[in-house]
Amino acid sequence: MDQNAASMASCLQEVENEMRVIRQQLQSQHQKIQYYCQQIQDRDRQTRPSAFLEHVDNCHSMLYSKLSVEPNPELRSKGTTTAIHDKARPVIVKQWIGFPEKQTALFDEISNAFSTDHRVFLRE
């Protein structure tokens, strides 16, 4: 009987070891699934159309993130200016009186035309 009990104990130990390995594999698979789900959600968020205000914010960020001015005059370009002969250009630059008010009114009108959940602007 002692030999039978030892055999059963050994068998039980093997089963417990196998269960531990299976639990670890399940945990690893669960972590992979969570990772891939997060990747899908991130990609969806990046590729789904944006609402108007998000679109304006994205454009602003994209345009202004590329602008920079070298603060050190010694490192600035020493080249010549662009030749303007035979190029379209304004002769006189004037202040556009009322522009800020007109811009605000137009922006408000466009903003009101698109609800916040109306996603029609494609991202690049």
How is the secondary structure organized here?
Elements: H1 2-47, H2 52-65, H3 99-113
How would you characterize the overall build of this protein?
This protein has 124 residues and is mostly helical. The chain has three helices and no strands. The chain folds into two domains: 47 residues; 45 residues, no CATH class. Helices cover 60% and strands 0% of the residues. It is elongated and about 110 Å long. The relative contact order is 0.11. The mean pLDDT is 87.
The number of helical runs is: 3
Structural class: mainly alpha
- The domain count comes to 2
Q: So what's the oligomer here?
A: single chain
Alpha carbon gyration radius: 33 Å
Q: Distance N terminus to C terminus?
A: 75 Å
